[in-house]
Fold:
Amino acid sequence: MIRDAELEARALAVQSRAYAPYSKFNVGCAVRMSGQVFEGVNVENASYPVCVCAERNAIAAAVLAGAHTLEAVAVCTSATPPSSPCGACRQVLAEFAPDPTVVTITAINPDGEHRSWTLAELLPASFSGRELPK
Ligand code: THU
Structure:
């Protein structure tokens, strides 16, 4: 699977900026959308269900800039093996992936380990706006 070195470096670089005082699980994410790179980190809250994942914050940054076409994702945690995006984030990523079979998701950690999937592998038979009435 093709890796995106710039994307992985950006996810690693922002991981330490996560606001995760409750879980202590810092997550950095970089998404390539419409040819540009956007970053996000997880932002937690004392009211735990309000926590927002790094992937969704990266998507929000892209949407704010007008970029809507997801091409690739890199997510950096300190987990071994590197951990994959949660189910909610997979659904949010899919919203911006016209063809999930060509969107690569690479999970990395600061020790240099990595795992890669396509979005279609992580979220098979996904629900999308195509299911909704016209
Ligand atoms: N988290 C992410 O940022 N991305 C994921 O895909 C999994 C979980 C965050 C949410 C919470 O702040 C912490 O990691 C522990 O679940």
